[in-house]
Design brief:
Elements lengths: L7 H27 L3 H22 L4 H16 L43 H4 L6 H14 L13 H13 L4 H23 L3
Helix pairs in contact: 2-3, 2-7, 3-6, 3-7, 5-6, 6-7
Length: 202
C-alpha cells in the first residue's frame, strides 16, 4: 500500500522544530557544566575564610610553636586528608585544621571544594588540569625539598593554593619567628589571589 507524499513544507517545518529542540538541549547542557552551584561557591569561600583566620594567627605569631600550629592549619585546610602532607606536621600530637575534603584534590584525585569551580575560577585556584594529581603534588614537594632563599621555585607552580602550602611547610620546618612572619607575608599574597579567583564564580 502506498502513502501519499508528505508536502515539502511539512518536512521543512518538522526539521526546523527538531533543530530548535537540539539547539535548546545543547545550550542547557553547556550552562549546567559552566556554572557551579551556589553551595559549591559558598563552601569554597568559607574555606578561604578559615584559611585567612589561621593565616592571621600565623602572621601575628609571637613564638615558633604558635606559627607552626597556624601554618599546619592552613596547610591542612588546603590539602585535605588525601595528601601525605596532611596531618600533625608539627608533631604536637594534634591535627590542626582537620577536614574531610581539601580545597585542592587529593593525591588520588579525591573530591575537593575547589574542583567544582574549575570552569569559572581560572588558573589561580587549581592551576590547570588535575588529571594527574600525584604529579601535581610531587611538583610541590620537590620544590619544598629544594627551596633556598636563593632558589625559590614556588612561582612556577600555577596554583596559588599550592604556593600557600609551600610557604606553610617552610614555616613548619623553621624555628625562626622572623622567617615565619616573612613566609606568612608571601602566603597572604597567594590567599588573596585564591579569594579573587573564587569570587569570579559568583
Amino acid at each position: 500500500m502506498t502513502h501519499p507524499p508528505v508536502p515539502p513544507i511539512r518536512i521543512r517545518a518538522a526539521l526546523g522544530l527538531l533543530a530548535a529542540a537540539l539547539l535548546l538541549a545543547g545550550c542547557g547542557s553547556a550552562d549546567d557544566g559552566a556554572a557551579p552551584a551556589n553551595g559549591a561557591v559558598a563552601a569554597a569561600e568559607t574555606r578561604v575564610q578559615e584559611i585567612q583566620h589561621a593565616l592571621d594567627s600565623w602572621r601575628g605569631a609571637d613564638s615558633a610553636p604558635v606559627a607552626h600550629r597556624a601554618a599546619e592549619t592552613v596547610s591542612n585546610l588546603i590539602t585535605g586528608p588525601g595528601v601525605d602532607l596532611y596531618g600533625d606536621a608539627d608533631g604536637d600530637g594534634t591535627v590542626d585544621g582537620p577536614v574531610t575534603q581539601g580545597l585542592l584534590p587529593g593525591r588520588a584525585g579525591e573530591a575537593s571544594l575547589g574542583a567544582p569551580l574549575s570552569g569559572c575560577a581560572g588558573p589561580d585556584l587549581l592551576g590547570g588540569s588535575w588529571a594527574d594529581p600525584t604529579t601535581r603534588w610531587r611538583e610541590l614537594t620537590d620544590r619544598i625539598a629544594t627551596w633556598t632563599p636563593q632558589s625559590n621555585r614556588f612561582p612556577q607552580l600555577p596554583s596559588h593554593a599550592l604556593r600557600v602550602v609551600g610557604w606553610a611547610r617552610l614555616t613548619l620546618g623553621s624555628t625562626s619567628v622572623t622567617d615565619a612572619h616573612e613566609y606568612a607575608g608571601h602566603a597572604q599574597l597567594h590567599v588573596d589571589a585564591v579569594r579573587t579567583a573564587i569570587a569570579a564564580c559568583r
